[in-house]
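S.,

Sequence below, as promised.
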Amino acid sequence: MAAAGSVGHKYLGKSGLKVSNICLGTMTFGVAKGAAAVFECNTQLDEEKSHQILDRYVELGGNFLDTANIYARGKSEEIIGSWLQKQNRDRIVVATKCRFQMDVSDVNKAGLSRRHIVQSVEESLARLKTNYIDILQAHAWDNAVPIEETLRTFNDLVRCGKIRYYGFSNVCGWQLQKIFDFAKYNGLNQPISLQQQYNLLCRQPEWEEFMVCKNEGIGVLPWSPLKGGLLTGKFKQGETPDKTQSRIGFVHTDEKRALQSAPAWSNYAENKAYWNLVDVMSKIATTHGKSIPQVAIRWLLQQDVVVSVIIGATSLKQLDDNMGASGGWELSKEEMAELDAASPRMSYYPYEMIWRVNGPDRFNEFNRSIKI
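The prediction came back faster than expected:
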């Protein structure tokens, strides 16, 4: 378990903002019937339990909260808002998101248009009971809106003090580069963060998005570091996950409801590469006297592009364990290499060729910061 105050802090991208290297994700806060499957799951927390998690997180040295307006249809933000009323607001960094449809009866209640972004910010501020948002993140790309409209709106919100910074989430490489270049060459505030799924079972962002981040000084905030529970070691071969104990078990009975954050069990139940990875993680965890989830999170923290890993917690025990990855120990180079080798990873063209022909002998530190 991490000792109080032992959590590390890092600058978020090129900004002067420092955040704890473990960020508390709050998608598990609040229950919303009729919403996405994960928000109806038995592991969702009520306000009292959510506040207990928040209190303990801050006690352990964390200062960085991640939420979204769509999480439990606003209930996550409301729970954080009621908790913030009892805190020193300026000591907490709050990130939220907008993009997805909050009201299916209103065609304009979605996307990254100026109208919807401004409306979303005002509604999030009311739910969070604060007068500013530290980081506003676009939850995904919007094909319906010119990126100029979105970025100028973000810039205006920074200038009027409604938000301090902005970032993006769930975008591909060309989209992120276009976002950054438009902001840079039009004299607008630039994005400081990319929130992207990244874990030992999802390494695709390494091919392109993270190359942009390294080149442009954008900090990475990995979400789903444990791949919805697959990287915790709690699932056993030949056993079906309990639907009352995990999101994966919850969607198992209806895999049409599976999401990236709640993957279909059928994709992994007989996957030899997955079970080999779990065995390798278990061995390394035993060597260090740590848990399997701590190994998964520590692997992320030792990636040079990562600033803060977004964890979710449904109990104080789970929170304490995850926070124990934040500092005080490290995986060796050999262990990092062993995890890399065990992590299922496909070589796609042209990425494999780009990485192969741009080895260490083609790195010029005066040209760019990226090391392939």
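Residues 43 and 314 are 6 Å apart (CA to CA).

Coffee later?
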